[in-house]
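User: Predict the complex.
Assistant: Input components as received:
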Amino acid sequence: MSVSPVSPASPEVPVEPRRYHHRYPVRVYWEDTDAGGIVFYGNYLKFMERARTEWLSALGFGQESMRRAGEGMFIVAETTLRYLKPARLDDQLTVTVVVTEIGRASVTFAQEVWRADTLLTQGMVRIGWVQPVTPRDASVAQAGDEASGEDSFRPARIPARILAILPTPISASKG
Amino acid sequence: MSVSPVSPASPEVPVEPRRYHHRYPVRVYWEDTDAGGIVFYGNYLKFMERARTEWLSALGFGQESMRRAGEGMFIVAETTLRYLKPARLDDQLTVTVVVTEIGRASVTFAQEVWRADTLLTQGMVRIGWVQPVTPRDASVAQAGDEASGEDSFRPARIPARILAILPTPISASKG
Amino acid sequence: MSVSPVSPASPEVPVEPRRYHHRYPVRVYWEDTDAGGIVFYGNYLKFMERARTEWLSALGFGQESMRRAGEGMFIVAETTLRYLKPARLDDQLTVTVVVTEIGRASVTFAQEVWRADTLLTQGMVRIGWVQPVTPRDASVAQAGDEASGEDSFRPARIPARILAILPTPISASKG
Amino acid sequence: MSVSPVSPASPEVPVEPRRYHHRYPVRVYWEDTDAGGIVFYGNYLKFMERARTEWLSALGFGQESMRRAGEGMFIVAETTLRYLKPARLDDQLTVTVVVTEIGRASVTFAQEVWRADTLLTQGMVRIGWVQPVTPRDASVAQAGDEASGEDSFRPARIPARILAILPTPISASKG
């Protein structure tokens, strides 16, 4: 976990703005740390989600209004994270968002967490679009019917108006 | 924060079984701790909620089925916690539940977190019963109407069949 | 939980800037919510802590450097919260910080969480200053000695250089 | 996300005891869920960690005492999770632990989360052993020296006495 010295000739090369669809700042608070004195690894998923949410919001996508309208929502289908170096209390981090693939029903991201020019965590997150299986009033009528209730979402094609606002994916090959 | 030696003559006096409506064991995991090396104070609210949930479940109360049936649910209205001594990774704790007051719309608890015979945290938690304001299909129809959506619950009287299963409160005067 | 209509004549009166020592914005993400569709009540403690941390940081107080130097740290000693109205996914909240009392060993805050001009949560948080009981190398030498290890902090007077940067308390009488 | 009917002839076949090194029960509480009405995906990492911790503890491995003695600790180096079906409030889950590979400095696990005979989440978790780089008093002396402080752990060989208690790995090929 040694930190390579950074020569003045190449400052912050990896965080070159055009390579990312979005960058999001995160400060590390007590809530994020664990008794090892570092950020609890599970919390990087939260940091990455915050960055995707702000990016979607900046694109004009209102997750909560679509969810409450019963139109559907993105849920996380797969995550792969490599924890390279630890972050600590008070650290100021940058979480990056890159869309690497857009499919009919899912979107794949490459995400990273940086402290200045040090890469701390690398991740791949795939999210899938789901729709409610039944109208909500139906689920109310069948309350207590666990079997029907437990699968109230199903994978679905991403609505065209969402696809329309998504950017062109950037190949993950250089990641 | 010194620990007084416990004489053999008074082992675990404070955790006398009959004083509690419920006792619930909690092990401290990495997720519960912070960089101070101790349990993050906010997590005691989680420990206390787990204990109340198991107690309600043992009484035959199904929170999730009532919620999904639109009949209502308990939400937390007020919490007061005093953090006396810290818990640490791997500690085996006991969370206690005492009902101290039952009102028309709310139930008040005294809760404690113990490590063996050492009291770590003392709390008061008041929960209130709420019901959906409107049928869910109505909220779907009005999606995007934030004003209507944001208050979709309202305080209500606790249903008689729930009151029927609650135990007689124990005075908090000695707490 | 009804929302009173807000007349145009009194916009945001309660969030008048001079009444607060600090104001901090919080966006509600998925991680903050629970199956009731609202922010999990325990998470307001996190929001309030983030606001206090940013306020301390703005005052020039470095929590992590003092902690790692073994000089001491603030730990939360008491919290009282009233949950008035729920916050929801995507909500943009403002968390306020008011110092209401400064003692020899503790600082008391009144904190609130607002969504625009709607007060959602009111809280009192008291933090106490603690110092390591023993040098860290001593604790290493005694590893496995649970009795000595478990109380490695003790309450202490707040260092003068911290007191020097704290603002004059604002009376909580109108809170 | 449909659930296949389970014939009485094949009850819980996938959770056959001998295939796992450990099985750990988890109840879903409010704290675990999000506004989608399901368990927040990031929390499966917590469930899996709890299961590994109880398994290590059952083997006689005291994480906290080794950490506090400065001997070292396991940190999570990599996680891959596939979220197949959602878990909900009040669900009773089983988290399984299988050691699939033991290297000099890391241990790899296959972990699953089940609700009865329904597989909800599949994961791979790799943990690495790390040791403090410097004695703790040295880190105190250099407080404020961020460059030295930030890498206070380094990867190391797993101590022989820990290797001695680990079980024979089970091939992940059928996972």
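Chain C has one domain: 19-163.
Let me know if you want any component modeled separately.
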